[in-house]
């Protein structure tokens, strides 16, 4: 409930008040809040959708309200978020994130015009969700690739692995390359003190170079391997003698393709998560070649 409330409190009054009125069950299971111009506002979680109402009728925001919502989430300084907006998202306090959909307009301040929808992802630390691999980590496994479809809990799993590796259990110095600012904010809620050095908002290649040259990490942990540049940063870390924990998109129970496939053989352990209906659940795992 508190994670949902922390996300909702970041929103303007016209949206926050109806969201605060939903029942506890919907709030406890909420993973996303989807706001679509001319359509409505839905709270998504556990495979179900709850459509918001205002005054007994479905709440249907207009295009101007969506534009104002994005400005509100940017703190009314969209020029400070141009780099994020160009990639389709806004990092929010608490590890929450808003995906912004509309027309990419490079000449417009902030880069996005005609906003059509905003999807707010509710960040939820789940202590112990990686317990199924704690034994592997204790036995010396240091490089792990977490695979699964969007929304299945990859970031949640990375947080718990980071907390276990850098906490009292293993006490490793962990360099966290948090490009989208999703992993580090809720990390302190899982355990403490943690031996984590966070580089937030840096491209992975830059962050990896900073970590390797200046931080002497035992392990590097980063979010998804999505581009060739990401894969090159991961390979650079491995070639420098530092193991990596990362995530990659893949279909349920199948190895990743694209950029992540190029570095798959470097990892000691590959975890496959279940599905978005069961976020943070391990479906199966296999030994890698690393």
In a few lines, what is going on in this structure?
This protein has 290 residues and is an alpha/beta fold. 27% of the residues lie in helices and 29% in strands. The mean pLDDT is 90.
Radius of gyration: 19 Å
State the CATH architecture of the largest domain: 3-Layer(aba) Sandwich
Q: How many H/I helical runs?
A: 9
The beta-strand count equals: 15
Overall pLDDT level: 90
State the shape.
Answer: globular
Biggest β-sheet: strands ordered side by side in the sheet: 11-10-12-13-9-14-15
| Distance from first to last alpha carbon | 40 Å
| CATH homologous superfamily title of the largest domain | P-loop containing nucleotide triphosphate hydrolases
SSE arrangement, N to C: HHHEEEEEHHEEEHEHEEHEHEEE
- Give the proportion of residues in helices: 25-40%
Structure description:
The protein is of the alpha/beta class and 290 residues long. The protein folds into 2 domains: 2-121, Beta-Lactamase; 131-287, 3-Layer(aba) Sandwich (Rossmann fold), CATH 3.40.50. The protein is 27% helix and 29% strand. The chain is built from 9 helices and 15 strands. It has a 7-stranded mixed sheet with strand order 11-10-12-13-9-14-15, with helices on both faces. A 6-stranded antiparallel sheet has the order 3-2-1-8-7-6. Strand 14 and strand 15 (278-287) form a beta hairpin. It is globular and about 60 Å long. The termini are far apart.
